[in-house]
Amino acid sequence: MKAIILLITICAFLNIAQAQKVSDVVKQQAGEGVKEGASIATQQTANKVTDRVLDKLFSKKKKKNDAKDNTNNTNNNITQSAPAQSSAGNNTQEINTPDTPTSLTTYSKFDFVPGDKVLVYEDFSRDAIGDFPENWNTNSAGETVTASSETGHWLMINKKGVFKPEGINKLPDNFTLEFNLIYSSDNYIPTLQTLFLSAGNGKDGNQELNADFSYNKRSGINLGIQPIPRDKGGIANIYAFKAGDKIMDNQIEFQNNGATKIKVSIWRQKQRLRVYLDQNKVFDLPRAFSPGETYNNVMFQTWSDFPNQDKYLISNIKLAVGEPDTRNKLINEGKFSTTGILFDVNSAAIKPESYGSLKDIASVLQDNSGIHVKIIGHTDNDGDAAMNLALSKKRAAALKAALISDFSIDGSRLETDGKGSSDPVATNSTPEGKAQNRRVEFIKL
């Protein structure tokens, strides 16, 4: 018994030391003028460390059984394989991210509707594995990698630094930004910050890699996401600055049932900012963006290096402009096209994050019961033309079925067709053009 009491006393001291260490990290991540969350994070971390110590002392057997159960839970685990050597001699780090299908209706409260014109689409398909992306800039380092249960290329971030997509000179008053985020960690890892910045002092700011708001009295938004795997969720924080002065801040907890992949959706409508993590709206701020300010930078940032082999992977970054006027375009112009309805690769399965766009269309049809429409699927030119044609028809049919089953639209009002890659609206030689061509049209009959 004395040994147990002594062990608990030692763990209590370790608890305090760990809490202080995390406090220092939180302060470092917060940046200039953003320190209020440190004490909260310290207390939360102290509680978590205490819980883990007591669990280890008195529930070792239970922990082992839980760990065994979690191994079979495909939502809760990322397994990192050993780095594989590519033919070019670069290291390719693969991360297993098992995908559990999510039904469309789980996103029933998801009202996000992406902009109707794609300005930037980044899937890192142009970049060789092991290289830093050609169309990005950084003051640190990163690599293009693959994820074993995901398609395509991803940018791996595991060091302190700023990571900036080039070619974005001005953000419009109405835009959407989406990206997929994978994280591999059993630890408390640095916050991933997404920043929208003004240049300050009349500079264009396109090549600047300084994310400090006090620098040149910049205005902007700082959105932070910090997954906490043991909590099956994490912390999201938001800071708004005007001319270098902080005018807004908040920090909330979010839950994602232990998933290791998050879809981040950001929607600006003039001053208003809405942020979604998967299907959950975590922020809806009517006065986040300052009127009269020009925002011309998008950056990602981490404030410290990562422990062990922890990392973030980001990809499928889509910046789109405009506020779709679905009703006017379909009713008055007779045609509406959207890139906001997404499907699994080489599949007619509708991704659940398409719910907002699909609901937008359904609302117009519900309010105008006399209208009949033809749904036409389109693809880019990757792959065989005949297979693309067949796939586009299947996707149109899947959308018809979803409108009938999930939104109670009369099926007799809907026709379907598909054109594959035969009718592009943009070049297929760039990721942005391909993203614009992967679309669905609704034609008024």
Automatic annotation (TrEMBL):
Bias kind Polar residues: ranges: 78-102
Family annotation (Pfam families): OmpA
GO cellular component: cell outer membrane
Domain OmpA-like: 330-445
Region annotation (Disordered) ranges: 60-102, 415-439
Domain of life per record: Bacteria
Name of the protein in its database record: OmpA family protein
Organism ancestry: Bacteria, Pseudomonadati, Bacteroidota, Chitinophagia, Chitinophagales
Keyword terms: Cell outer membrane, Membrane, Signal
Keyword DNA damage found: no
Leader sequence segment: 1-19
Record-linked InterPro entries: Bact_OuterMem_StrucFunc, OMP_bac, OmpA-like, OmpA-like_sf
SUPFAM superfamilies referenced in this protein's UniProt entry, alphabetically: OmpA-like (SSF103088)
Gene3D superfamilies: OmpA-like domain
Keyword Kinase belongs to the record: no
Subcellular location: Cell outer membrane
